[in-house]
Each structure stands twice: as structure tokens, then as C-alpha cells.
Design a protein that fits this description.
By secondary structure, this protein is mainly alpha-helical. It has two domains: about 45 residues; about 30 residues. The chain is built from two helices and no strands.
Amino acid sequence: MAYDQVLIATAALLGLVVIAAAALKGWQGWLELKARELDQARERPEPRPATGAARIELADLRERVRKLEAIAAGVDL
């Protein structure tokens, strides 16, 4: 009888160790993934200043949005 209880306790402890090891491995993998994401975010080049053509296009888009907002508000241009 006592041996049965020791065997069950040992098996339960071994199962707990296996689960804890798997959880630790998963946690380390998650941390490594996040570290890689941070490294990639640091390696991205900073945005360059807009060129002349891009500024003109952006101004054109802003003007279109302004006109659409005026139409939605019921203002005659």
C-alpha cells in the first residue's frame, strides 16, 4: 500500500516537472520572439523627408479632403 502511494506521488511530481519544463520552454520562445520584433523595429530606416512630388500629391489629397468635408457640411465652395 505505501509503495502505491509513493509511486503515485512520484508520477505526479514527474508530470509536474514535465509541464513546468514545457511552460518554461514556451516562455523563453515567446521572449525570443518579442526580442526579434524589437530588433526589427530598431533596424527600420527612419522615414525620409518628402520629395517635391510627394509634397504636391499630399497637398492635392488634403485639398480634396477639404472639399469633401465642405460638401458633407453643406457649404458651397
